[in-house]
Amino acid sequence: MFIAPKIDDRTSNVFYGCRHNPDMFGESVNVIPLTIKQFQEILTFFKENGFSPASIYSLLDKIDQSREEFQNLAADRGIAWVKNIQSIISDWKNSVTIKGLATS
């Protein structure tokens, strides 16, 4: 995870691309960029509803997999991906609460 007050557009594009483009060692790097506000929202949710490592992994995996939705964009895939992260967090919180994965 990369956590910052704001995710710059250039940073969004770099983090999007490094998942699909191997680095100089031939490894892809998976970075999930979150704003401080988003990270606090996630921590508050777990504090209020119970914490499960599987739940946090589920969220991070959903964010990671959502990159695929933007593959066909001609440019700025990373910007579109990062702008969509808040929606993923909100949908995931609703899903976890409905499925009862979070405990009160």
Topology at a glance:
Layout: E1 2-4, H1 9-18, E2 33-35, H2 36-49, H3 53-65, H4 77-99
Parallel strand pairs: 1-2
How would you describe the overall organization of this protein?
- With 104 residues, this protein is mainly alpha-helical.
- The chain has one domain (2-99).
- It contains four helices and two strands, in the order βαβααα.
- A two-stranded parallel ribbon has the order 1-2.
- The radius of gyration is 14 Å and the shape is globular.
- It starts with a strand and ends in a 5-residue tail after the last helix.
- The model has no long low-confidence stretch (mean pLDDT 87).
The separation of the N and C termini measures 26 Å
In terms of DSSP E residues, the strand content is 5-15%
Could you name the ranges where pLDDT drops below 50 across 5 or more consecutive residues? none
**What's the arrangement of strands in the largest beta sheet?**
1-2
Helix content: 55-70%
- Can you summarize the main beta sheet? 2 strands, parallel
* General shape: globular
Question: Which class do the helix and strand fractions yield?
Answer: mainly alpha
- In total, the number of domains comes to 1
What's the helix-strand series? EHEHHH
Question: Which key features would you list for this structure?
Answer:
104 residues; 6% strand; globular
Quick overview:
By secondary structure, the chain is mainly α. It has one domain (2-99). It has four helices and two strands; from the N terminus they run βαβααα.
